[in-house]
Amino acid sequence: MKKTISILGSTGSIGTQAIEVAQKHGIQINALAANRNTKLLAKQCIENNVKTACIFDEGLYQELKELLEGRNIKILTGMDGLCEIAADNTDDMMVNSVVGMVGLLPTLTAIKSGKDIALANKETLVAGGNLVMNLAKQMNVKIYTVDSEHSAIFQCLQGNKRSQLKKILLTASGGPFFGKTAHELKNVTIEQALNHPNWSMGNKITIDSSTLMNKGLEFIEAKWLFDLTPDQIEIIVHRQSVLHSAVEYNDNSVIAQMGVPDMKIPIQYALLYPERMECSCQRLSLTDYGTLTFENPDYETFKCLSACIEAISRGGAYPCIVNGANEEAVGHFLKGKIGFLDIGEIVSQSLDKFGFNEITSYEDVIEFDRAARDFVNSRVL
Ligand code: MN3
């Protein structure tokens, strides 16, 4: 039987590469959804002969309708559209590569429908980790990570006993500003922050990489995906992004996964697990690199990273709060309303603004996400 998938966030960096992987390996795509890029979405839908297309921005419905004129493609919009695709249990898997908290409800909906998830939307695990993991367990649904570091950890777990894991080594490229002091980062421009040395990604995640918020989110993501305690996760700056993360076992043996920095490897591993098929990425030549370096992160300068670790150590709604605060702060930075260092400052402050609260429902997540954003806006606007 041919495998069928749907992709939310199909016009982004992960989405377009997921389509390439699906095409290369004969995976049928049933539905595609995008935020605002109607032209590329329409092109993808026609090329892949999909049944359903969804444009998240409802104002663009007419535009998409015209682009798909005469095609037998159902057109959906908004969160309802994403969830209708997520609920379609004729798919084997849903790739969730939307950006931000908006991905949580479609993830929960897809799990309820019983299909596996290839998850590139880390914010859903950060904001609603306990909800997502409990529901997945209950529904016997597998969540395959499409994050290069977490895919590496997942690969290093194969063939070993989870009970004999001591800790994980989560690598970080360090972003464009590794080694810089707070003083040097004071006047960083939007263009400088958007210029990542190793990976080409969307704006939000590129800014998150430059503040190390991305690594903080990945720290929380790792906790949920692999059922770890915060002290079982060590962050190591590895500038070359060749060793994608590692697992240390009880015998002090460390197993790492390596490869060129190309998201096609983790995307393909998630879509084809447990198969390892030909991949269109480059082969890794270790001698071309020659030297691989490993260093400690600077938790003082990169406040977002410490805030995330503090948030998951405190538990409850705190990860959801730092995530919401960050999404809002990054939005303000990209509009030129706050400086680069203000992002970390505001995210840290959000931790102390709120007392401890549990997350027991999707509504709780929405409430604390909203409260965190309101807090940021009260500081900025
Ligand atoms: Mn990553």
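qc> The longest strand covers residues 165-172.
qc> done
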